[in-house]
Structures are given as structure tokens and as C-alpha cells.
Design a protein that fits this description.
Strand content of chain A: over 45%
Number of helices of chain B: 0
Number of strands of chain B: 11
Structural class of chain A: mainly beta
Order of helices and strands of chain B: EEEEEEEEEEE
Shape of chain A: globular
Low-confidence stretches of chain A: none
Structural class of chain B: mainly beta
Mean pLDDT of chain A: 92
Oligomer: heterodimer
Number of helices of chain A: 0
Helix content of chain A: under 10%
Distance between the termini of chain B: 36 Å
Helix content of chain B: under 10%
Radius of gyration of chain A: 14 Å
Distance between the termini of chain A: 41 Å
Largest sheet of chain A: 6 strands, mixed
Strand content of chain B: over 45%
Largest interface: A-B, 23 and 25 residues
Order of helices and strands of chain A: EEEEEEEEEEEE
Number of strands of chain A: 12
Chain lengths: 117, 115
Amino acid sequence: AQKVTQAQTEISVVEKEDVTLDCVYETRDTTYYLFWYKQPPSGELVFLIRRNSFDEQNEISGRYSWNFQKSTSSFNFTITASQVVDSAVYFCALSVSFSGGYNKLIFGAGTRLAVHP
Amino acid sequence: SAVISQKPSRDICQRGTSLTIQCQVDSQVTMMFWYRQQPGQSLTLIATANQGSEATYESGFVIDKFPISRPNLTFSTLTVSNMSPEDSSIYLCSVSGLAGYYEQYFGPGTRLTVT
């Protein structure tokens, strides 16, 4: 099965708290890519990060960090010192191969993050 | 990344009518994708549009309901036919083939309400 699970439907935090969004995936591919996207209230989908299956190094970008662990099939996303502008729905996605050598994305259900002042 | 635009940005339509959504990219791309996001839900792939060939539809989506055109490497259209209130969704196009075949960048979406 090719699947992405985001078990947290909604998270509510107060500004400056750290928050971790969980993502667990299933795939039969040996080479795959994982993504995080942000969808603010405006509706557009903003690309945050891509990670390939051979690179398990954690990544940090400002207040954002990502923890990829193949052993547990997880790709978790942490926001440090959250801000009100971080309020959005966050989607984890898995890129799976299909015919023609191209990939398509399978999305998790999304986690709605509300950051309160 | 690329600049991706969609028209219209939103529309309110009556049931039984059809709406064509346009997706324009500012650079040539290999693959274009169309997604549907029903209210409060995640994104579901409708079809993949490759220039010069028929679109490939996902399970549960058919060409008669969602005809797609891909006349060149920068443009695609999705038509939502014979609409019903259940078609009320955000429709997003995305593109890949820029930084690599694995990355997809999304347009701003079209918010469709069917009354």
C-alpha cells in the first residue's frame, strides 16, 4: 500500500510554543520522496521541503526542522517558537512512481495548526 | 519554481452547468496535474496531463465528467461537467519537471461553489 497518515487532525498552541506535526508513510518503492506543504487560509499550497529516501539527515530551516526516520517510516515536522502566521493546514505527501518514469503525490489528511497569541 | 496562475480564482455556478478552469505556467513543464480538495479534506489527484497525449485519470474520475486538455507545455484546462453541489471544491493544478520530476508546485487554486 502507498499511504500517508497524519494522525493529528488539529493542534492548538499558544504563540512561542514548539509544536511537532507527525507524518507516517507506507510505500513499496525503494526510492521515494517525502514532502511537506503548507496551506494557509488563502488556500494556495506552499512547498516547504522535499526529502529523498536515501537522505536521512535532519534538516533545519529557520524555525522549521524535519526529522526523517526510515526505521519508523516517519517524517515529522517541528516548528520552534511558533507564531500566529504559522496557523495553517500542513500536508505531508509521498511521491510514488507510476508509468512513464514520473511520480505522483499521495497526500495525508492534513493537520490544522492554530497558533493563538 | 515557476509562476502558476489559474482562472477563475473562484466561481459560483448552477447545477447542471459546466465550468472550464485554466492553468498557465510561465515556463515549459513536462507534467501537469489536477487535484480536487473537497471542503475540509485533503487533496485527491484527478488526473495527470502530459502534453501530446490523453490525460491519465485516477480511480473514481472519468473523462466525461472531467475532460482535460493539454495543448502545449505551458497550459492546461480542466472542465467540470454537469455540475452538482458535490462538485463544490477547490481545484488545483500543479506542475513538475522544473527542478526535477519529483517536485510539484501548485497553482493558487479555483474555489468552486455549485448551488
